[in-house]
Design brief:
heterodimer, A: mainly alpha, 12 helices, elongated, B: mainly alpha, MetI-like fold, globular
Chain lengths: 299, 339
């Protein structure tokens, strides 16, 4: 850190400069467009979906997409084994996916970062305790812990969010703590202390702003992870109740009829892939444009 | 060197004991939040309240959580993880039957991931122009956006259903008997000289292992590329270049060796990700491993089994981390005899 030029140092200090750099990045723009489109679909689903996603048309089950032979124009992407419209279900599925992604990522960010700020700034025994908790959590394969939590908590959107927060706070805690350890040794933190700032003020006004860009990047990546975890849990049948529409659930339904109808799985699989890719491209772009070390490598 | 490796292994294992203790407390407490009553499912419909209480006492479920934990821990320390509520056999026996399949699957997946990821990382490093770099990083991010369970479904649809060239259920075809000495299908069939059965087991392993590998390989590609980019700025590269060493030789003999360390670290840190991925992949391919056992336990609310499997998953991750640390000392001379 100390071998950075003063100009680079300053540019790192001001969050504004970082976001200006970020909006110049092509990756950030591509990611933002994809995420924005999915969000728009989630909001507008009731108006753009051709059918009610729960409506069962038992006379036209497992229809192929409208453009292939045997398709029906009323169901552009065909129907599932209960005669429900695949397109409508895919569009509505974006709602659960994005709700869970947003809430879980923000929740994990808050929980992980607060612990990281306390541990990294206070050091000593508090730091030791938090670090050991992170170690123990890291021993769990994430899927195993989230399955356990869902068994313990029971299904429902809130519990899915809670279980992702309880599993993934460590992703934030580990990375942010390391950054806090660097930041708290900076001169301006010492200066603030000399000026008589309380510890709380220093953390909130001097340390936190320095790690916010990092947290935002991690939130974007975490949203992609949360979409995958929700899909995984709803695939196993441990996420939302059957009255809701989730992509993982659609995949599980389509899997039971995959020998008769291969296409039923395509729409939800593609939806998950596009959404996760949007978050990943956005997060990757943010990471590259806000991390001065990476900026040097690319230049 | 052997002494240093042994020291690292011992220190890691000693550090793993408190971690395991915390892990088992977490597992225990989480599962006691359970709203569903595992006993309720075992009783016949005409059972009385006394019957329920008797069964509850038989499984020790009438004790306080702290007391249940102490009893469980005392038994676990002696290698007794209790009796499965659903299968009525010792949990350890169920796990011992399933574990080799999962280890075999993750080992095969790791090998495939390296076989895809290492050349991939080198290829990405070789990309130089600005345009191509953006394309390359978009390519890696795209690959990173496909989790192993989606790969599992896609491969299943492609090579199992649409073009039925590979088997996609179980470890071997029906009718093929595994010798069952070590529990590792590939090892056992080879040791028994049953080449047909070996080929069959290998074919069954291919799709699930590939699904896991395809999700893991982009991580390897990315870290290898960035460590190679970092290594390229080191002095020894310039020195070698001035000495007239060829670029290919610098890359393969010098830089790759240094870039291997961050790659190894990544494999250690992310092993849980790969190992956890087996859970859904096993479910999708009806592969009789630990993951399938866990999903089964989840569906049956089989507490003792669920506890046992979760703890074994964590032990496996900790052991893998220890192994990576030991390898680190073997590969990196700077970590040897520094003290």
């Amino acid at each position: 850190m100390n071998d950075m030029s003063p100009a680079l140092w300053l540019s790192r200090g001001t969050a504004l400069a970082q976001f200006r750099a970020a909006s110049d990045s092509r990756e950030v723009r591509i990611g933002a467009v994809i995420v924005g489109a999915v969000a728009l679909i989630a909001v507008l689903a009731p108006w753009i979906a051709p059918n009610d996603p729960q409506n069962q048309d038992l006379l036209s089950t497992l229809l192929p997409p409208a453009w292939s032979s045997g398709g029906d124009a009323r169901y552009p992407l065909g129907t599932d084994s209960l005669g429900r419209c695949v397109l409508s279900r895919t569009l509505f599925g974006a709602r659960i996916a994005l709700t869970v992604a947003l809430c879980a990522a923000v929740g994990a960010a808050v929980a992980g970062s607060v612990l990281a700020l306390i541990a990294g700034y206070a050091g000593g025994r508090v730091d030791w305790l938090v670090s050991r908790a992170v170690d123990a959590w890291m021993a769990f394969p994430p899927v195993v812990l989230s399955l356990l939590l869902m068994v313990g908590l029971g299904t429902g959107v809130f519990n899915v969010v809670l279980s992702i927060v309880l599993v993934d706070w460590t992703r934030f805690c580990r990375v942010v703590r390391a950054e806090v350890l660097v930041v708290r040794r900076r001169d301006y933190v010492a200066a603030a202390r000399l000026l008589g700032f309380t510890h709380f003020q220093i953390v909130l006004r001097e340390v936190l702003p320095a790690v916010v860009p990092l947290i935002i990047t991690l939130v974007s990546l975490e949203m992609g992870i949360a979409v995958i975890v929700e899909a995984t849990l709803s695939f196993v049948g441990l996420s939302v109740p059957a009255s809701a529409v989730a992509w993982g659930m659609m995949i599980a339904d389509a899997r039971s009829t995959m020998h008769e109808a291969v296409w039923g799985m395509a729409a939800p699989v593609l939806a998950i892939f596009i959404t996760v890719m949007g978050f990943n491209v956005l997060g990757d772009g943010l990471r590259q444009s806000t991390d001065p070390r990476l900026r040097n490598v690319r230049a | 060197m052997l002494r240093e490796v042994a020291g690292v292994v011992l220190r890691r294992l000693a550090g793993a004991i408190p971690v395991m203790l915390v892990v088992s407390i977490v597992v225990f407490v989480v599962l006691r939040l359970l709203p569903a009553d595992p006993i309720g499912m075992m009783l016949p419909p005409n059972a009385t309240a006394e019957d329920a209480a008797a069964l509850r006492a038989a499984f020790g479920l009438d004790q306080s959580i702290a007391r249940q934990f102490v009893i469980w821990l005392a038994h676990a320390a002696r290698g007794d993880l209790g009796v499965s509520i659903h299968f009525h056999v010792p949990v350890t026996r169920l796990i011992a039957a399933a574990l080799p399949a999962t280890i075999e699957l993750s080992a095969a997946a790791l090998l495939l991931a390296l076989a895809i990821g290492l050349p991939g990382g080198l290829a990405l490093y070789a990309v130089r122009s600005r345009q191509a770099r953006l394309a390359a990083s978009l390519f890696v991010v795209t690959l990173l956006s496909v989790p192993s369970f989606l790969w599992a479904l896609l491969l299943l649809l492609l090579f199992g259903v649409t073009f039925p060239v590979l088997p996609f259920t179980g470890r071997v075809s029906g009718g093929v008997a595994l010798p069952g000495w070590t529990g590792f299908a590939l090892v056992d069939t080879l040791a028994a000289g049953q080449l047909g059965a070996f080929a069959d087991a290998l074919a069954h392993l291919l799709l699930p292992a590939l699904a896991l590998a395809l999700a893991f390989a982009p991580l390897i590609m990315r870290v290898l590329r960035s460590s190679l980019l970092e290594a390229a700025t080191e002095d020894y590269v310039m020195t070698a270049r001035l000495r007239g060493v060829s670029e290919a030789r610098i890359l393969l003999r010098h830089m790759l060796k240094n870039a291997a360390l961050p790659t190894l670290t990544l494999i250690g840190v992310q092993f849980g990700f790969l190992f956890g991925g087996t859970l859904l992949v096993e479910l999708i391919y009806s592969f009789p491993g630990l993951g399938n056992l866990m999903v089964q336990a989840v569906r049956d609310h089989d507490l003792p089994l669920l506890q046992g499997v979760a703890v074994v998953f964590c032990i496996a991750v900790l052991l893998a981390n220890t192994l990576v640390d030991a390898l680190y000392v073997v590969i990196n001379p700077r970590l040897r005899s520094v003290r």
